[in-house]
Amino acid sequence: MSSGITSDRLPLAVTMGETAGIGGELTLMAWQALHASGPLFVAIDNAKRLSALAGRLGLAVPIVVVADASEAAAVFPDALPVLDRPLGTASVPGTLDGRNAAAAIGAIADAVALTMAGKTGAVVTNPIHKATLKGEGFAHPGHTEYLAELAGDGSIPVMMLAGPELRVVPVTVHVPLRAVPEALTTERIVTVGRITAAALRRDFGIEAPRLVVAGLNPHAGEGGMLGAEDDAVIAPAVAILRAEGIDAVGPLSADTMFHAAARSRYDAALCMYHDQALIPIKTIGFDEAVNVTLGLPFVRTSPDHGTALDIAGTGKASPASLIASLKLAAAMADRRMEHG
Fold first, then answer.
1. Which tens digits make up the pLDDT trace of 296-320?
2. How many angstroms separate the CA atoms of 226 and 238, rounded?
3. Is 298 helix (H, G, I), strand (E, B) or coil?
4. Closest CA to 105 of 73, 148, 136
5. What domains are there in the chain, each with its CATH number?
């Protein structure tokens, strides 16, 4: 199936994200870049907000409200199709307002419901402002955990950051650095490795995925001299993965895992904590990296950046990561459709 607009492709569901952030303008810019070729998407957003943003930024983006996602294909070449959702109050770029938190949360829930019902092909989420949502009663650390709850099937969500030159998977994510050793278990590493290998096969079309597993301590513990976790926790996990037929290598010293020659030897790197994974990929491909949630019964991608409140409404934000997220979501959804 091609990456352009086709009659048999379901639209991707794009959420509004934080209404004070850059998500709305990125959606508008993405439509400008993709409306002639696709991938096809429908915005779950407030139509009046998007129209105001387009006018403010001088973006020639017609907005058409649709009643159903199935109408998006007919509209998309000429206008941005929007499943209109009300806001709690008018949004102001750069100015947070908790009264719009419910709308941002509801857009995520709607996108998941549409995708699980087979009306949209994947969920693509614009960035949310976690502190604002938490202040309004949102009980989850972020998108990932909320998506797992919405899936409702006991899914274990795993974060992957994927770019043209590198894919990384943090085994522990939003955990204080001092808490990482306690949170890191052999079982957790094995679970993340299994889910990653399965996703590389199903969603990325890699028949025999190759994983490298980073050590926790400098030089992967140096035989225990620089920490016991690498030998006691990580190495047994790698052995289990290998025994299950997964091509996994490690633990390796993280400081030599990310140069070009090293990257050519694996398909994804399992990293032990947040910054060990995100620093290299954001350095190598900041504008092209995509946040992918593995292990869910639906495809979900997101730009690998935040709400950028400081530049919201100025037109300075780049839509590159959202465009990359849309293209990757479409490719993943196609593979799932083709292979069942």
1. 999 999 998 899 999 999 999 999 9
2. 19
3. coil
4. 136
5. 1-156+298-340 (3.40.718.10), 158-295 (3.40.718.10)
